Amino acid sequence: MSRVLVVEDETHLADGLKFNLEAEGYSVQVVGDGESAIDQLLKTNEKFDAVVLDVMLPGIDGFGVACALRKAKNYVPVLMLTARGRPEDVLEGFAAGADDYLPKPFQLPIFLARLQGLLRRSGWLSGANKESEKKSSGQKVVAKSESPASEQMLFTFNGRTLDFDTLQLRTKTSTIQLTLMEAKLLRHLIKQNGRTVSRKSILEDVWDLREDTDTRAIDNFIVRLRRYIEDNPAKPRHLLTVRGVGYRFVA
């Protein structure tokens, strides 16, 4: 039975989510503010399989909760709920570490499908992490036919290995755990290796956004990714800016 933490300060919505999730067979705990969520997730021994996280919370908001989790290297899947459907707000959630988002109001079947998708991915990653030590660091690109997701692979360049099964970037000295959206953006750029990828393409194909938005949100993601993959982020060799258009990845 999967355990879900619902972080929602609107009592009627929290009660409705709890009722429907329990009817689907989940074990559910509800808290009403960000501080309580952080306590449950980081300061107790309780384990949750997913978090349903509202953005507008008293005290620490949902963005702050997601940031605190990822900073503490807690990678529990997070489905963020937001009444603010602007693309900038969605991207802020992804930048904070959310794995998926759902604007309010939402239909229950869509909510359940999104949550089930995150739980399936979490199960895949758990299995992939157990097998990660068996992989060869010298491989360039390795397709995994046994993987539930057809695009899972390893990609190695400049002494770094991106493992899209485990969402990890491995070097000779360290391992960086990527968020789902960081990994999706890197994979999108790598698939277009050597070709310019427009900001519009990133919005539509990575984040499923089809509205104009402040491109600084994308730029902030790129800045963070450069810290991971570049020897000198100020003078990038792999993740290049194409002024006025977008970005190009060069292995």
CATH architecture of the largest domain: 3-Layer(aba) Sandwich
Number of domains: 2
What's the oligomerization state?
Answer: single chain
Q: What value does the average pLDDT take?
A: 83
- The number of E-state strands comes to 13
Radius of gyration, whole Å: 19 Å
Question: How many strands, what sense, and barrel or not for the largest sheet?
Answer: 5 strands, parallel
Strand adjacency order, main sheet:
2-1-3-4-5
What is the global morphology? globular
Order of helices and strands: EHEHEHEHEHEEEEEHEHHEE
Percent range of helical residues: 25-40%
Instruction: Extract low-pLDDT stretches.
Output: 127-150
- Broad CATH class of the largest domain: Alpha Beta
- Which class best fits the helix and strand makeup? alpha/beta
Query: Approximately how much beta-strand content do the residues carry?
Result: 15-25%
DSSP helical segment count: 8
